[in-house]
Design goal:
321 residues, alpha/beta, six-stranded parallel sheet, 12 strands, globular, binds NADPH dihydro-nicotinamide-adenine-dinucleotide phosphate, binds the ligand C[C@H]1O[C@H](OP(=O)(O)OP(=O)(O)OC[C@H]2O[C@@H](n3cnc4c(=O)[nH]c(N)nc43)[C@H](O)[C@@H]2O)[C@@H](O)[C@@H](O)C1=O
């Protein structure tokens, strides 16, 4: 806990998670030595007093807020209370304490599920709060919308520099491969690999296979986070609005879940069938991000989907749970 180097430095909340660990790798490879972190066991971010004391003692200059209760469609559906409560508490505590202890810049990570379920595609930042949300993840999405509004409210009232990025579906090294709580891509990698090894004739794929999703490799996500954090304030303000300040982060391209499953099968070398399971939910029909705002700020994704899946499959093979 703490960095052992006195006050200052960059605090990554959630540094052991898929995104937090990628941000840490990105900062370290850029030569940043003063990175501050704490596990959830040492610092439960739902505890306001503990968070306040931690930031008072360490006084970081920057905070990456990548700690959250995270999961796929099934986990969101099964644990809605935890998804709204934990995320509201974590965000509220970290953002409030960051203001109290003079953090110069904070980056909050939201999610593309903040946007209305049935809205124009690709989704521009301005469609926020223009329609009803997807029911399978509404509590999580409400918390993420509140996170954006916390940042904007502190900026407007206290003059802070708190920024938000909204990632599309992410994947990569460090992902969660648990079949009940994971997102679709790690689940497909695991199911397909196990089917190939056991010689199974088919793999179960939840839902109809028709929903469309966009996937961004976590190293691209981390690079985008560092890019947005490092934009000077005048540039960031020129490209955002005080009441619509969040930035979409994605590739700008999507594919159907059926096509994704076929791509994973090809990478893994599985030649069996896909067995779609209509008893599992499809969730949002499509959520493709309009990434032109971030592109205008000089950042775009660089890791192709096939290349990213190949690299993640290799990581999965080398890091058995
Ligand atoms: N994965 C995805 O597809 C997407 C993720 N996002 C967002 O990106 C961010 C990072 O997600 P990701 O890295 O995938 O998630 P992970 O589940 O991999 O990591 C989450 C991290 O949050 C920490 N954490 C959770 N609860 C607490 C708590 N009560 N106190 C302290 N720390 C806590 C955990 O710490 P510890 O390990 O110490 O327990 C963990 O390291 C989140 O905000 C998420 O909503 C957005 C869109 C898509
Ligand atoms: C990132 C995003 O993640 C969540 O939303 P989601 O995109 O719907 O998440 P998902 O990756 O779990 O599913 C994508 C699609 O894929 C299908 N699908 C097929 N087979 C499996 C499968 O085996 N596992 C899973 N999980 N899904 C499967 C599944 O039925 C769905 O149609 C949000 O709750 C929210 O947390 C959020 O922000």
């Amino acid at each position: 806990m703490g960095n052992g180097q006195g006050v200052g430095g960059i605090y990554i909340a959630g540094h052991r998670g898929m995104v937090g660990s990628a941000i840490r790798r990105a900062l370290e490879s850029a030569g940043e030595a003063n990175v501050l972190s704490a596990t959830s066991k040492d610092l439960d971010l739902r505890n306001a007093t503990a968070v306040d004391e931690f930031l008072a003692a360490n006084r970081p200059t920057q905070v990456y807020l990548a700690a959250a209760k995270v999961g796929g469609i099934q986990a969101n559906n099964a644990y809605p209370a935890e998804f709204i409560h934990d995320n509201l508490a974590i965000q509220d505590n970290v953002i409030h304490a960051a203001w109290r202890h003079g953090v110069q810049r904070l980056l909050f990570l939201g999610s593309s599920c903040i946007y209305p379920r049935d809205t124009k595609q690709p989704m521009r930042e301005e469609v926020l709060l223009t329609g009803p949300l997807e029911p399978t993840n509404e509590p999580y999405a409400i918390a993420k919308v509140a996170g954006i509004k916390l940042c904007e409210s502190y900026n407007r009232q206290y003059g802070t520099d708190f920024r938000s990025v909204m990632p599309t579906n992410l994947y990569g090294p460090g992902d969660n491969f648990d079949l009940e709580t994971s997102h679709v891509l790690p689940a497909l990698i695991r199911k397909t690999h196990e089917a190939r090894v056991t010689g199974a004739e088919s793999i179960p794929v939840w839902g109809s296979g028709r929903p469309m999703r966009e996937f961004l490799h976590v190293d691209d996500m981390a690079a985008a986070c560092v890019h947005v954090m490092n934009l000077d304030r005048a540039t960031w303000q020129a490209h955002t609005d005080p009441r619509c300040s969040h930035l979409n982060v994605g590739t700008g391209e999507d594919l159907s879940i059926g096509d994704l499953a076929r791509l994973v099968a090809d990478v893994v070398g599985f030649e069996g069938q896909l067995a779609f399971d209509p008893d599992r939910p499809d969730g949002t029909p499509r959520k493709l991000l309009d990434v032109s705002r971030l592109k205008g700020l000089g950042w775009q994704a660089s890791i192709g989907l096939r290349e990213g899946i190949e690299q993640t499959y290799q990581w999965y093979l080398e890091n058995p749970a």
